[in-house]
Amino acid sequence: MKTLLLFTFLIFTFSIVAQNKTDSLLVELGRHPQKDTIRYQLLKTLSYQYSFSNPEKGIIAADSAIALARQLNSNTRIAGAMTNKATNLHKLGRDSEAVALYLIAADLQLKAGNKKSAANVFYNLAYVYYDISNYFLSIKYQQSAIELYKEINLTVDEADSYNSIAGNYLRLNDYTTALKYYLMALNVYKKVKMPSNEAMVLSNIGMVYHELNDPGKAMQYYMQALEINQNINDKNNLAHDYQHIGILNDEAGNYQLAIKYFIDALNLNIELNNEREIASCYSNIAYTSIRTKDFVNALSNINNALLIYEKHTDKYNTALLLNTWGRMLIECSDNFLLQQKIPVDKRYENALFHQHKALQLSREIQSRSLTITILNDISSSFEKAKMYNKALIAYRQARELQDSLSIEDQKKQITRLEMQNEFSAREAAIKTENDRKQLLSSQEISRQKLLNKLLFISGGVILLATAISFIFYRRKKEAETAKNESVLKTEILETEMKVLRTQMNPHFIFNSLNSIGDYILRNDIQSAEIYLKKFAAVMRLILENSENSSVTLADDIKALKLYMDVEKLRLNNKFIYEINMDASVDPENIMVPPLILQPFVENSIWHGFQGKEGEGKINISLMVKDDMLVCTIEDNGIGRGMALQTRNGKDGVTSKSLGMKITDERVLMINKLKNSNASISIKDKEQGVCTEIKLPVEYNF
Fold first, then answer.
1. Quick one: how far is CA 220 from the chain centroid?
2. pTM of the predicted model, to two decimals?
3. N or C: which end of the chain has fewer CB within 10 A?
């Protein structure tokens, strides 16, 4: 397996310079106590400088800037300070809070017509999503930034976004698209003479060729980058160059030289306080240490790296390390296992535990090449544990995924075959015509011999044609089967996308943001922060859960509770809820489709309690009966009849809610895939509605 590949984002760390600036800013703040725009700018700049060295203090400075901006009644200044606060939150790994603040800041900047500031916020937002391995959303926000940069002719900023988009495509294994965007960025940086950025992109192009198994070309680009960075003494990018060269030496078997380069990179990154790159160095030292059988050093570096990656929700590199940990437990000596207090007979169990966690993460981020690697390693682990059936299943899954990666190659091969067949047909026609002329001018015996040869050739051509026909017939059948599977997968994907769109109900988001804005306008900072934290938490859980085809019941209930808590805050505690779980339910191991209960709870809140006098109540109960998970949701609302009248009078809506329709579709998909009897039934009560959802029980072991 390849060692960890780096992705160089546009981050410039100025640890010593930043500290000097911080000290001078603190002095200036002490000299300027007046609450005016000058003090605001000092606080905002201070919060930015702290993001490089002390994000906790950066948040405090940003909060002071936000409070002052409110006093100055300036939405654009509020947005600027919020952007800096979000940057500090992201540095601390508090990504959901950062995303929520960036979205508010972008909205404020767009309303004020500040396109450049809004584009910069989108760029930062994309950076957050890249770090948490959500590459599609990262690309989306970079494209939003590019549109704004183009409108105001900011070519360099546009190039920065091209470089970032390329990095996302590199992680998604779309090397052609990645190279296209890297070259677009490189052309701009060369034109405007930005050697540091030029070197960075050259290094990234080297990574593309590295992934394409062309180490010679990769080294050429790495050395070009190294030469530029040495000339301008760019320590940040020099650290990256050392890592890349170390990786190539590792793959060439020069392990001691590789570790030397990794340590050189580590020392530079510690000096620069580049936390994520420090983790990358630890990872690469661990990979090379395993090759040299230095398992103690390998495990120490794995643990150091995991602490950082898990803090920053970097699923890609976490998956790489967990899988490596599993492989190491298979390869290591019995003495090493005992040193780690792992019984020798539990070697494979422990190894596969880490590898399956890695597999789950790789599937979450949809990295096919990483998933293939992990599946192959899992197959190998099962084989060594003499669990041959499971080894075969994992191997087949890896092969199927590998085949899907080879579709373009197969298309090219088919095109080549068609061209060869066409050429052969023309050649055969010419040959036949020549043979015919020879027959006419030859004696009978010669003609007979030639005829026999032609018959033999014709027989061969017929056999060849039959073989080709059979191949294409088989491919057609395989294509039909794949098409049927693709249709089902497409239906599932469309349904899941509808689910995500439904859960992220615009009314819910906008009402929540309006509530936060209302608290801000009333200067009720404490309430705004409480609401913002809960809103950010529910947004993060909904997004994370929606990325998976199934989640644990515990995670789904957690997201549901957070959703209801946010709605309670918004509605001033107009309702209460209660969740009862039978002893037959194992929430940590039962898997359910994500957000399956939320539409029915939303219906109770938005329609059942609308116009209701007195306190609303939602009772949710769960139990396992006859291998089915039975979920019951009851409310004491106004009932379906009254709710329908209210909705008809208000907006003419007479159909079933979109969320409930989509849930019906999801249940149909479950029954198709699992041949089960999942169902949904809704009954009116004397007061309120009772909904019962039955799902086949699926355990996570």
1. 31
2. 0.46
3. C
